[in-house]
Design a protein that fits this description.
Length: 366
């Protein structure tokens, strides 16, 4: 039975779950057997809280249920965090040739191709930026891919910092100080003033990190009861995507570019290669500001390649130019277009990796 269970759930997680259950059982037995009667009630209360915590946060059935119940009732990042937490408890292929890391744009590009090509896996979170890549890098490195595929444009580097998303990262207690120090060095002063507190509390108290789950469940219950003032928290309005795209053209790329460099450097230290594909978005959303940023971004890619000689960069000119017909909205490719482009990206990346080809002209930081 245990062998069959481990084929559906990650063996390491199975052992951890069994150890937690055994520890709780031992705790209850010792409390009943040895603890003085005046202390038993308090001990039972603590053990009960720990048991509820394991039930709510420590098993894949709970996270699978949260994902099903909260589809459309939590924001896109929260839904992806739930899905990722569920997947982290399942057996995951390690040592794949390519691991695509990025936002929903990355998922839209590679999702179809990865289903029938085992050499490609995806790690994506809605709105994922280089800041998130650094916060999740230990999980990414643990998957031990040969190459990480990044699909990044000026749109990603101009993204706003989202502290409410950063606090959801599964940073362990021992890593909090390192991650906060890394972010403080890359970001303007006081960009994320409460992050250290949030990461510390999240590492100690999963109910703090994942409190959005229960807020969303209560919100959905209120919606089902038709209580006034409760509506889904996210919008699928396509105009929202175009507004976000055009607004990015007025933002700075400095902070996220520093975090991208840190991520590439940490992957290089882990002996993991990086293939950076210049992202594309729907031409209908282009503005003069975005065009200026794209010119600066191209120069940045050149400088990045010089700084990291092992880095493979595929610029837009190296791949088929996309048209509005290839997109479902402002920046997500259709399934058919994504499948076609993903195949070309992997083929071109293999050619570059085999030849050691790179861009060599001069460039400057954005």
């Amino acid at each position: 039975m245990l062998a069959r269970l481990s084929s559906f759930i990650d063996p390491g997680f199975v052992l951890l779950l069994l150890a937690e259950i055994a520890a709780l059982a031992l705790g209850f037995w010792l409390t009943r057997r040895w603890l003085h009667r005046s202390w038993r009630s308090a001990a039972y209360a603590v053990l009960a809280v720990l048991a509820v915590r394991v039930a709510l946060f420590g098993n894949p059935l709970a996270w699978g249920a949260y994902y099903v119940v909260l589809q459309g009732h939590a924001d896109w990042r929260q839904t992806d965090v739930i899905a990722e937490r569920f997947r982290s408890m399942l057996p995951l292929p390690r040592g794949v040739e390519f691991l695509a890391v990025g936002s929903s744009q990355t998922h839209a590009l590679y999702r179809g191709f990865s289903r029938d090509h085992a050499e490609l896996q995806i790690f994506s979170l809605a709105g994922m930026t280089p800041m998130d890549m650094e916060l999740y890098r230990d999980h990414i490195i643990a998957l031990k891919p040969k190459q990480v595929l990044l699909y990044i444009s000026e749109f990603d580097l101009a993204a706003d910092l989202r502290p409410e998303w950063a606090r959801l990262a599964p940073v362990s207690l021992l890593q909090v100080a390192d991650r906060v120090e890394m972010l403080d060095a890359a970001l303007p002063p006081n960009s994320l003033p409460d992050l250290k507190r949030d990461l510390l509390l999240g590492a100690l108290l999963p109910e703090y990190r994942y409190n959005f789950v229960f807020r969303a469940i209560l919100s959905r219950a209120a919606q089902m009861a038709h209580l006034p003032g409760f509506r889904p928290e996210r919008s699928s309005d396509d105009e929202v995507n175009y507004t976000a795209l055009r607004a990015r053209g007025q933002h700075s790329m400095q902070s996220q570019s520093r975090l991208l460099e840190s991520f590439i450097r940490n992957l290089d230290n882990a002996d993991i290669g990086v293939v950076l594909v210049e992202g594309q978005y729907n031409p209908k959303g282009e503005t003069p500001d975005l065009q200026r940023q794209n010119a600066a971004f191209k120069q940045y890619l050149v400088a990045l390649q010089r700084q990291y000689p092992k880095l493979i960069v595929l610029q837009r000119e190296d791949l088929p130019q996309l048209t509005s017909a290839d997109f479902d909205d402002a920046y997500h490719l259709s399934t058919e277009s994504g499948h076609r482009l993903a195949g070309i990206v992997l083929r071109t990346a293999r050619e570059r990796l085999g030849q050691g080809t790179a861009i060599t002209s001069l460039g400057t930081r954005p």
